From TrEMBL:
Protein name per its UniProtKB record: FAD-dependent oxidoreductase
Domain of life: Bacteria
InterPro entries: FAD/NAD-bd_sf
PANTHER family referenced in this protein's UniProt entry, alphabetically: DEHYDROGENASE-RELATED (PTHR10668:SF105), PHYTOENE DEHYDROGENASE (PTHR10668)
SUPFAM superfamilies, sorted: FAD/NAD(P)-binding domain (SSF51905)
Length: 473
């Protein structure tokens, strides 16, 4: 029987482990933390019973994930829940850009920008399932649907700023900009519309869903499936050197490229090691969870029904804050993402006290305390919020990296999503999961298709590993 070791038990490590175990490989996952799950974990905090997602919260890219679908994780308790409204981007005058799962409903709310929204997103949303066969894999390969991919792909090379100019209303521009800013890149850089377009198209097809019982349920379902397939998990095992790696036919690294280079040292070809050590990090996230009595008192009525609220003000303000964090400067009013998962999954609340998830975009390695800036930004669009806070808990950029070594300096994307790294992954190659050592692969969110709790980096890398085993047999 072939054997495999997976280092790191985040969604991608678990997806790789499951994909291998399902083909009869004997798999062991080695995880540094006391429990697996990486960025897909949740727990009670602040007050007993109040359930907070530690990282990943909203899952437009996961619901339709080929990996999650293939293994039928609902059999292991994974259930998606949807808020009434996917995302709201409020402005100071009380108005907002409002994103619904339906393209038509979104367009109807955007007034003069409605037809532009429909033209931009109607086509990729209607064909998202077919498109995802190409965009959820390394991009530089012969596509399953070349014409469809070309039509979707052409505008993704645009800077977010150019794409945003398609929209004439401040609500339409801000709504698109807030989603594009998930790329953690200055929006005037080329290809910064790509991540936003992917998330919006996925959301119009599958909705911005949350996992019932917290994102931990994604991990729990994967762990139960892996166990059924005979896989083993060892927690509290941090791998720092190659000598700690058990002998195995396959080794998968659900790690940042620099960590793989550190572990394998001169066992890696020099060109790979150089590329992995030069891999660029993205800006950081500073996270604050709140316990809020009666929920957030938003001025905009739609924000009361939205799973996600993007706080930055106008598109111009948002673009300025993203430029600043990229330059290593902490903006006075950072881009803040607020999650109200409890609206779709009420069991996360305790009576009238609700868990509110938030993080701000900050410079990589930011050492200050962004809590007050986050509260002020929420207060700006929800006067009276401060008085409703019963308690809060903070995860700074430093704590983020201590919590999960992949998030160096608070970089929750596992690497800057610049053109090169977004297109190729950790190094310029057509095979982004290979590391130049037969039977060893990198499968973290540093590889295509990138961040998210969809498991596709791990599943794609596992296909290469299985092909390697088949060639040896
Ligand atoms: C604050 C925040 C908000 C987010 N929001 C969303 C969201 O709403 N939707 C979404 O889809 N995604 C979101 N993400 C991103 C998502 O969580 C990640 O992209 C995803 O978890 C990446 O999965 P992974 O398996 O590649 O790596 P990770 O989840 O980072 O897991 C890596 C695992 O490897 C372990 N590890 C690291 N080093 C070692 C070592 N040396 N030895 C052994 N084990 C090691 C870590 O402990 C960890 O368990 C968010 C992330 C954060 C932090």
């Amino acid at each position: 029987m072939s054997t495999a070791v997976v280092v790191g038990g985040g969604p991608n490590g678990l997806a790789a482990a499951i994909s291998l175990a399902a083909e009869g490989v004997q798999v062991t996952v080695l995880e540094a933390a006391q429990e697996v799950g990486g960025g897909a974990r949740s727990s009670e905090a602040i007050i007993p019973g109040l359930l907070h997602d530690h990282c990943s919260a909203i899952h437009p890219m996961a619901v339709g994930s080929e990996f999650l679908g293939r293994f039928g994780l609902e059999r292991y308790g994974l259930r998606w829940r949807w808020p009434e409204i996917d995302c709201v981007h409020p402005l100071d005058d009380g108005s907002a850009g409002v994103l619904y799962r339906s393209v038509e409903q979104t367009a109807a709310g955007l007034g003069p920008d409605g037809s532009r929204w429909r033209r931009a997103f109607g086509y990729p949303a209607a064909r998202f399932d077919a498109l995802s066969q190409d965009i959820m894999r390394p991009l530089l390969r012969f596509p399953h649907h070349p014409l469809m991919l070309a039509r979707f792909g052409a505008p993704t090379v645009l800077p977010g700023s150019a794409f945003a100019r398609l929209f004439r209303t401040k609500q339409g521009r801000a709504l698109f900009g807030g989603v594009a800013a998930h790329a953690f890149r200055p929006l005037h850089y080329p290809m910064t519309s790509a991540i936003g377009m992917g998330i919006i198209a996925a959301g119009h097809r599958h909705g911005w869903a949350v996992a019932e019982g917290g994102s931990q349920s994604i991990t729990n379902a994967m762990v139960a499936l892996l166990s059924d397939l005979g896989g083993k998990i060892e927690t509290g095992v941090r791998v720092d050197t190659a000598s700690q790696l058990p002998a195995a036919d396959i080794t998968m690294f659900d790690l940042a490229p620099s960590a793989v280079a550190g572990i394998l040292g001169d066992r890696l070809p020099r060109r790979v090691s150089r590329a992995f050590n030069k891999f660029r990090r993205g800006p950081g996230a500073f996270k604050v969870d709140f316990a809020v009595e009666g929920g957030v008192p938003w001025t905009n009525p739609d924000a009361h029904r939205a799973g996600t609220v993007h706080l930055a003000g106008t598109y111009a303000e948002l673009a300025a804050t993203e430029r600043e964090i990229h330059a290593g400067l902490m903006p006075e009013r950072p881009f803040v993402l607020v999650g109200q998962q409890y609206l779709a999954d009420p069991q996360r609340s305790v009576g009238n006290i609700h868990p509110v998830w938030s993080y701000a975009h900050v410079p990589n390695g930011y050492t200050g305390d962004a809590t007050e800036a986050i509260i002020a930004q929420i207060e700006r669009f929800a006067p009276g919020f401060r008085e409703r806070i019963i308690g809060h808990s903070v995860r700074s950029t430093t704590q983020m990296a201590a919590y999960n070594a992949n998030y160096v300096g608070g970089d929750i994307m596992t690497g800057a999503k610049d053109i090169r790294q977004l297109t190729f992954g950790p190094r310029i190659t057509l095979s982004p999961y290979t590391i130049g050592v037969p039977g060893r692969y990198i499968c973290s969110a540093a590889t295509p298709p990138g961040p998210g709790a969809h498991g596709m980096c791990g599943a794609n890398a596992a296909q290469l590993a299985l092909a390697h085993l088949a060639r040896r047999a």
